Amino acid sequence: MTTAHHDYDLEEPLTSTARPLKNSVITVRIIKSFPYRNVKNIVLHDYDLADKTAKDLFNDALNKIQNDGSLRPFRNVKYDTLKVYTHAHGSKTVNLVINFDHDEDWILDLQNDKKKLFEYGIENETEISLFNKDDYLRFKENPEEKW
């Protein structure tokens, strides 16, 4: 399958463009608790951004949570949202748990089964947060961290 976009660049590679879309590395930041900063990363290697949708990524992450023993403490949250935390080579947020900016354009549409991940601007080494949206909205209203 060929795509109409520039897939990768080995002449002037950045980490975001040095790998083909079908062979990307994506980090999913599983957020259990915003105030307590309970976050665990899973790294998905050889992930296909050209053919996978947001719903595929969501299901792959949930499957990893259910089947990886180290993620057992993260199983009691009802995850329902994926949001880009940071793009490779992009600026990082000052908040260590979640990026409060870009709610309107960085939250992935889990109902759209046609839009592929690369169409959201997701490239190799993008970090994506997985969380419960109600918990996020409560934390955004009062972003107090607890220890």
Question: What does this protein structure show overall?
Answer:
This protein has 147 residues and is α+β, with helices and mostly antiparallel strands. The protein has one domain: Phosphatidylinositol 3-kinase Catalytic Subunit, Chain A, domain 1 (Ubiquitin-like (UB roll)). The protein is 18% helix and 21% strand. A 4-stranded mixed sheet has the order 2-1-4-3.
Short description:
With 147 residues, the chain is an alpha+beta fold.
How big is the Rg?
15 Å
Please name the CATH architecture: Roll
Shape from CA axes?
globular
Give the termini separation: 49 Å
SSE string, helices as H and strands as E: EEHEHEH
- Please name the fourth-level CATH homologous superfamily: Phosphatidylinositol 3-kinase Catalytic Subunit, Chain A, domain 1
Low-confidence stretches: none
Mean pLDDT: 86
The CATH class turns out to be Alpha Beta
Biggest sheet, in brief?
4 strands, mixed
Can you give keywords for this protein?
147 residues, 21% strand, 18% helix, four-stranded mixed beta sheet, Ubiquitin-like (UB roll), alpha+beta, 4 strands
Task: Please describe the topology of this protein.
Elements: E1 24-33, E2 38-47, H1 54-67, E3 81-86, H2 103-106, E4 127-131, H3 133-141
Parallel strand pairs: 1-4
Antiparallel strand pairs: 1-2, 3-4
Organism: Saccharomyces kudriavzevii (strain ATCC MYA-4449 / AS 2.2408 / CBS 8840 / NBRC 1802 / NCYC 2889) (Yeast)
Family: Belongs to the UPF0538 family.
Pfam family, one: DUF2340
